[in-house]
Specification:
The chain has 247 residues and is an alpha/beta fold. Helix content is 46%, strand content 11%. The chain is built from 10 helices and 7 strands.
């Protein structure tokens, strides 16, 4: 059964290769989407090549809805996007995937049913299909090579949907012992180095000592140190002092 998560339906219009359908399913499930609709697949349905390419996303193919026409596939939707690099003279709003998926999220949250249409691999979407859409999604690709693989286009939009609807931590420190050092720990580290470097005569000439100390403190403040980092740096200085005192 499909998940209960509110989401758009991704509609594949006359896809030509089972492998591309499977890759599209995999791209959708990577980002938590599982509403696939397929219109008149060239090689019939079900397609074993699609299943093989989908890998762990085969459930999407089992649950995919298959239609004969575009009109049938989007008949229950209230807002439809067409992904194409060529509006072909039709006057419609044109959005990036980022803007479209943010808008789609708002529409779905207010109770609308949204679909995103993707055209056939070889020639893309025809005007008859585009005319049924309310808006166009255009990926800002290299204008000299604007063609996108079906699964690539699905993945770009699915990724933007995920960003628009999930609490994403856009930057984090990962790995073992990643607790960020507190200011008091940085202060003690700075004191330790300042004292030992002072004993070694580093702050010379005396007229520049205060400025050198400020620069050193500024260096510590710029570093994204973890508690483990601070311990290592303390240990390095202690060992250097012990080594020097053995001479």
């Amino acid at each position: 059964m499909p998940t209960d998560t509110p989401q758009p339906s991704f509609v594949l219009i006359r896809p030509q290769m089972g492998e591309n359908i499977g890759a599209a399913a995999r791209a959708m499930w990577n980002f938590g989407l599982d509403r696939m609709r397929i219109i008149a697949p060239r090689d019939g349905w079900p397609n074993p090549n699609a299943v093989a390419m989908a890998s762990g996303a085969g459930r999407l193919l089992d649950e995919a809805q298959v239609f004969d026409t575009t009109a049938d596939a989007i008949s229950d939707c209230t807002y439809v996007y067409a992904t194409t690099a060529r509006p072909r003279g039709l006057t419609k709003p044109v959005l990036t995937p980022e803007a479209a998926m943010a808008e789609a999220a708002q529409r779905i949250a207010s109770g609308e049913k949204v679909a995103v249409m993707f055209g056939p691999e070889r020639a893309g979407m025809e005007n008859d299909d585009i005319a049924r859409a309310n808006a166009i999604i255009s990926v800002p690709v290299n204008p000299e090579f604007a063609s996108l693989n079906l699964a690539q286009c699905v993945l770009l939009n699915a990724y933007q949907w995920r960003l628009a609807t999930s609490e994403i931590e856009h930057r984090k420190l990962d790995g073992h012992r990643t607790e960020v050092a507190e200011q008091i720990e940085i202060e003690k580290l700075a004191d330790h180095y300042e004292q030992r470097l002072g004993d070694a005569g580093f702050f010379y000439p005396e007229a520049k000592a205060d400025h050198m100390k400020i620069n050193l403190r500024n260096l510590w403040s710029r570093l994204p140190l973890t508690r483990a980092d601070v311990q290592i740096l303390h240990g390095i200085m202690r060992q250097m002092v012990r080594w020097k005192e053995r001479d």
